[in-house]
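Today's session is about reading a structure prediction critically. Students often jump straight to the picture, but the first step is always the sequence itself: look for stretches that repeat, for charged clusters, for runs of hydrophobic residues. Only then move on to the predicted structure, which in these notes is written as discrete structure tokens rather than atom positions. Here is the chain we will use throughout the hour.
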Amino acid sequence: MKCIKIHPNDNVAVALEDIKKGGQVSAEGISEIALDDISRGHKIALIDIKKGDPIIKYGNRIGLATADIPAGSHVHVQNVQTALSEGGKYEYQPVTYPLPELSGRTFMGYRRAKGKVGIRNEIWIIPTVGCVNSIAEKLVKDNQDLVQGNVEGLYAFTHPFGCSQMGDDHANTRKVLAALVQHPNAGGVLVLSLGCENLTEDQFKGELREWNSDRVKFLTCQNSEDELADGRELLEKLAGYVNGFEREEIDASELIVGLKCGGSDGLSGITANPAVGRFSDRLIALGGSTVLTEVPEMFGAESILFNRCKDTDTFNKAVSMVDNFKRYFTSHGQVVYENPSPGNKAGGITTLEDKSCGCVQKGGSAPVVDVLEYAEPVTMKGLSLLSGPGNDMVSTTDLTAAGAHMILFTTGRGTPFGAPAPTVKISTNTALYEKKGNWIDFNAGTVAEGKETLDEAGDRLLDLVLDVASGKKTRQEEAGFREISIFKDGVIL
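Below is the predicted structure for this chain, in token form.
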């Protein structure tokens, strides 16, 4: 039966296909009879494990045995518990790994002002308040005729906020919406206000600081006799401006790619996530940038990232990011390990440590060059860590606001949603790819099947990223699925 022992020190293996009770299981010279039915992605004990002993996977402790576990047994929630707690001290033990050697690569993108580049040439409508969401959506529906020539799309990014918020929540809304207005994938932007909301037009302009009046237009609906007619007029002007951009050859070093996983399973940390990690190392070797977020899904594996920080200051910022997120949990009376989800568990992930060790594989082996606050823009080449939660829509909005041109999203269970930036869905297993081909862009299940190595998958993924950057549409884009969600923590008035 096919299974894999990920690290030489592991005392469990992961099933690469369903294993029936009584079947022979072999991994790294160890052979056992399966004492239980074990589904693909789930763990099997390679040795006898005593109650209280650590469960070792990825070479790391992912939990503690709650009962004696004989070799050949199914290792999961029925006999394993987390070993995480809210505390934790970290020591900086720097490590470095070589990056692959690659020759230069390019893509066909759009040159923007101040040295920025985009991979799409779209018009975005950004409501400053949820009250005008329906107007934004109607403007998109009624003006699709403007999507022609070099105008690649017209989209509205609706949300429920912009009023009745205070403090950090109001600041987060301003920050994210302003970052979306400045995103280089938008050739033109219409900022749509109501007129009486907390987030006034003047306040929003203050958050933007500066803008090109040809690229960014403003409409306050309460000041307009016919907001749909006035909106049409502004969109026509934006379309004329956006049509003036054409794709040109741009070095791959200009790309910023966000890294995210969701609907994970037991193969996520074996196929899709490390394949994304290989891609990340390759893009960074070419001079590009990648961004890793979902801080709560670093808990239990954070030291893997901390020790790759480029210096002590970056290490301290990374520790502070994780500690702040733990305090966020405890301030709400929540434990830090209330994860994984039911779907994760069904797919074979047992504890948060198990999930986190798989999650951080997406960051490859490159040094961590920077640690960013929520929605803070990427400014350094290389791998950055971005503060944000694990929730799929909140974190992909966060990545887009930080400047990601596209997002690589690995999944073992499948999900259809998309971020404002093109969202490349990567399946951990071939069954999902074949079942939900309308959702999935790239199959990493080939690694589990022995059809290609992780390095080969990383090469193939780099090719796809450059194709998407050059205009190839993702499944999410073909379906027209684009959404945002803004982080909130406080009172709604």
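Discussion point for the tutorial: The domain at 122-246 is CATH 3.40.1400.10 (Ribose 5-phosphate Isomerase B; Chain: A,).
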